[in-house]
Specification:
Distance between the termini: 22 Å
Number of helices: 13
Number of strands: 27
Oligomer: single chain
Low-confidence stretches: 111-127, 132-137
Radius of gyration: 25 Å
Shape: globular
Length: 498
Amino acid sequence: MDWIRLGNTGEDLTGVGGKVLDVTPDELAKHCSETDAWMCLKGKVYNVTQYLDFHPGGIDEIMRGAGQDATSLFNEVHRWVNYESMLKKCMVGKMVGSPLNKAQSRLLQLRRESASSQSTSSLNSATSSLGAALKDLQTLSTFKPRFDWFQTNDDVTVVIYTKWPEMRHEHVIIDKEGLCFSARLFVQNFTYQVHLELDDKVLDKYVVKVEKNGKVGITLTKETPNRIWIDVGLPLANNMTWEETSTKDLVYRDCKLLSKLEVTHDTKLFMFALPAGCRMCIPIGHHVYVKSSIMGTDVTRPYTAVLPALKPELQDSRMTDGKVLFLMVKVYSSGILTPVIDRLQIGDLFPVSSPEGSFQASLLDACTHLVMFVAGTGFTPTVRLIYHTLVEEFKQERRVTLVFFNKTEEDVLWQEELAELSEQSKGMFVVHHVLSQPGKQWEGMQGRISLELVNKCVPLIGKDGQYLVCVCGPTLFTALAVNILKELDYNQDLHIFT
């Protein structure tokens, strides 16, 4: 909010008197210090010097992109942020020529360091690593899925061959408006799109099936049965595109608020309906972004999609069908965006993005011990992990442990549901609640995450089976958890939700 206010004071944040300059790569490279920092994002150059102190990730993080083309770095970390709105008053001008990207800049830096030290070993190592990474990327980018179709009297089925064995139905997003049909498939780090003007109308009812070899079938129900289609449809602008997902802008859809329920004194569960014609199922552990324009600037925040409850009888079939999604939001009275979300009325529309995330559900396949260290609303990414492992794909040999940190007992999310699920599991699911500010009646564990506490909750972590450890919480909490795991010589699967 302070940055938005500064931008509205009329102060020249460009440092060039408001002129729009043509910036060459050499000129851009000169502005790479904390007192004079420019960066290029998608062909536009911004003076981010005054923004450094406001950057949530700290000065060091944003300085990684100073003096160069930071588009790739930005896409890796903040692709969901509307930087054009956030930095519009810092724009210096447009790039003339091609600036160095992150990889090229790093290689140039290593060459300089090598020349000054008269040693080539570090350069050769870096060049080799960079070459291997580029080769892997080239292999992915040269493979391209293909699609075909067939029909019956009642249905039309679009078949896409991805050849990705970890492909799941949640990796398919469908949008339809009139005859315009779009299916986006998220295949590893790439997006493949089928974009057509259909030959005839279909119902807003889709069946998506995925086979182990990555073959995807999308069955559409004809609005007019027994009509034989001449073709599946005419190709539109994005048909058969195959691009790195990080280079594509997020797609936002206006979703309608259907309900909001209190979970704790400051946290609520919101249910949103996706637009008509849309099917979007959120992969386990993935998040969406919501945004709102505040004081002329788009403010965006990520939220992990959760379930309506942890009880099977309270699940909503519309979520399975990709028609609704649930978000658990902690409302901060002094926050920027959460009060806006809290003020939404039933029926209001609110923009929600396509999902993102790096968690792969296949990590659970061989897992015999799932351990989760979470703090506060860091619990939300584990909701579907817990339900998936204990209800949807229960395995007798798999143990699940949740170590849940909160300030007070009133802050604990779904405490009763967790207790009931633990009791029903007959020892397969253990929950440890840890409070940093417990009340007088609290008889459970107290304190903050520590080596002693981790040893007490999970004494044999990484020693007696195939473990998957997940961590989610504030930055300091996550860093402490990771350091503790290092002290314990834990070297199995670890996933950090950010």
